[in-house]
Amino acid sequence: MAVDAARSDEGFTSAGAARLMSTACLVAGLDDRGAELIRLGENALFRLASVPVVVRVARGEEYLPKARTEVGVSRWLAGAGFPAARVVDGLEQPLLIRGHPVTFWHLIVEGDRKATYGELGSILRDLHSMTLPTALELPSFDPFDKQELRISRAAIPEDERIFLRKRWRELRDQFAELSFETLKGPVHGDAHVQNLMVNDRNEAVLIDFEAFCFDHPEWDLMVTATEHHSLGWQTDEQYADFVRAYGRDLRDWHGYDTLRRLQEFGMTTWLMQNVQEDRETAEEYRRRIAALRDDDAPRNWRPR
Q1: Could you give the count of Cα atoms lying within 13 Å of 173 in the half-sphere of its Cβ?
Q2: Which of 8, 56, 219, 269 has a Cα-to-Cα distance from 251 of 20 to 30 A?
Q3: For residue range 223-274, what is the model confidence (pLDDT) as tens digits?
Q4: What is the reported pLDDT for 258?
Q5: Residue 24 to residues 63, 88, 92, 115, Cα–Cα distance (Å)
Q6: CA–CA gap between residue 124 and residue 108 (Å, rounded)
Q7: Taking a C-beta distance cutoff of 8 angstroms, is the pair 84, 207 a contact?
Q8: Cα 37 to Cα 238: distance, rounded to the nearest angstrom
């Protein structure tokens, strides 16, 4: 269902996303009063106060295929009994509200701890061993599919836009030379530990299926490998738990450096979308863009 499908010109800010969320709730018959913004990133996520539901608002109509993928993957994983986020049944999904796809998800009631890297390794190992149903069509992993949109729309200086496009072309050339030895299968596409939640029954639950695809498992392993080897975001013990649970350290693969550069580029352009939200985000973006200009410089990045 589409409501005023013309793209909004107000930009994708937390305030604008909240207005889109309210309209979507009206269409879906849900009460949005007291809704709380959980996160603003590739999407805006709102937790409703009236019912245990999370509303996910995407940045624009070009994200509609990804929203459809999310819904299809969630229903497949639910049917397979896999521990993953669930879309709300009985609603037409995704809605298209003024050019923005909107989906509705059951709230995961969090327990009193965070997911471990060992749990992330285990759940990725299990996911990669699954067989996709023939009815579920998934794209290949494309590390470049959102980059032009991000670069063209971001509120950044023009010289940085020129640099990012040049770096993007260089990375595309490096990507074209990659050779994989693993079989393709279901891949999460954004497999960091923050996309694993522990519910109030102490179960680790996989979330966020926007980048879900059918491709090589290395794309999921590159996230934690880069965060540890390049950024130092995990202790040696945490990363060892991840490797032990999954059974592989991606740094031992010849293509690791290319995947690391792709991951760092994506992390920078993802953050770049929100440089106008607050000073901390703008400062972290400046830290990351400076590091991209020097591949040998220390990555003193901060999680956002």
Answers
A1: 5
A2: 269
A3: 999 999 999 999 999 999 999 999 999 999 999 999 999 999 999 999 998 8
A4: 96
A5: 16, 14, 11, 31
A6: 19
A7: yes
A8: 30
